[in-house]
Specification:
Strand order of the largest sheet: 11-10-9-13-18-15-16
Keywords: Copper, Signal
Pfam family, one: Cu-oxidase_2
Structural class: mainly beta
CATH superfamily of the largest domain: Cupredoxins -  blue copper proteins
InterPro entries: Cu-oxidase-like_N, Cu-oxidase_2nd, Cu-oxidase_C, Cu-oxidase_fam, Cupredoxin
Organism: Coemansia umbellata
Number of strands: 29
Protein name: Ferroxidase fet3
Bound molecules: copper (II) ion
Strand content: 35-45%
Radius of gyration: 24 Å
Shape: globular
Length: 475
Amino acid sequence: MCMIMRFIALFFLLILLQPAQTADVFVDWDIGYVMVNRDGVNTRRAIGVNGKVPIPPVVATIGDTVYMNVHNSLDKPTSIHAHGLFQNGTNAMDGPAFVTQCPIPPGKSFTYIYKLMQSGTFWIHGHTSHQNSDGLRAVFIVRDGHQSPYKYKYDESIILYFEDWYKEEFAQRAADTMDPNKPFPPPHGYGTGLINGYNGNEVKPIHFKPNKTYRIHLVNMGSLYSVKVSLPGHNISVVEVDGIYTEPLEVDLIDIATAQRYSILVKTHDTADFNYRFNITMHVDFFPYSPGKSPITYMGDIIYNDDAPFKSIPQVNKPLLVELNDIYLRPLDGEPALPVDRSMEIVLSNGKFSNGLNLDMLNNITYKESPVPSLYTALSMGSLAMNSQVYGPQSNAVVLRHNEVTEFVIHNPSNLPHPFHMHGHAFQITEYGFSNKDYPQSPSPCLPPPTLYAQGAPIKRDTLVVPAFRKDIID
Ligand SMILES: [Cu+2]
């Protein structure tokens, strides 16, 4: 081979050895009604994509640009939100109707375009009229690129996602819940758990090879139920929450509220001598205890070897379950608690309105969509954009300044736990304690639980649960 040919060969070899370049990812979603039987009992109308429910996960890589073309084949407006993405610089692609865009009318299309600047576990769902609850939801995994700072190694990854499913469509369930003349919770409120899209009673096994490390993406896409996940006989190490990498935290059980996500690493046993089981318990704290309805426990198989017996894990040897709590998690980047520029209180309450409905309120306002998307108001009002009044009396707007650190003290003086989610941000969770706000349902004076403070770097995430009668402080 002459010298020039060698150069050419070397040149081609170098091109082949280049790390994978970022790419364009095209996703086509035709949103329409589908008749499905998801709970094994009832066939009902659901909202699916390209004629399907469940909707297959979307997988991309950090640095990719997503072109998500959405066509609306429903008879009502729709829009799509990628939950957990900051959309920094692409705010108009976030998806909530009348906040960042007008919804997509029936028969029309819209293309969401954004570059993926984060990696981890997310989900994509309808953000108009709670269409997510009727099936319009899919897991969204953003893989790390070659330049990933991620220090944990794993051999393979698995997705486990959870949904709740009901006989009635969401609109019916919401009307019953808001009707003060109907019992709460509504008698038909108990749902069926779905695991990886299918009835939890028929959950497919997880296949493990010996001596490997698996990353399991856990996603709760449900609308009411929290999900407790455990893999008895295996150690669980949490390494990611809501797209934020964490210092590894060993736990026995993870309780995942609606819209929350986790990645866990599981090291498998050295040999394939035994098979195991995993447990998924779905629960809603405000439903009266009724085993088999709430909580509902589903059991799945962990198969190492089709011919091996199942290993029973004796309860006596089991140490006290360590339930995961945000306050014990640390972000991998070690960012300390930010110095606070200003503090605001958010108080949750519930009231009966002149329209006869029972509605929840934040700071005594029940949210109503503005006629104009708030983002458009912000972009068209000039200096008045800093005045919260211009966003409409019931949009309950709070105007934040760029790069200012705002502390939110979120009070939940009600008797129901509530998840809170913030679009476009991951917030630090710095304190967690008993709310001193008056509320008719506050428990009779007894010793309140101690206040917990984050030690060192507080965890950052985009969805947290404020338990009943508690407050959380986030920055
Ligand atoms: Cu979101």
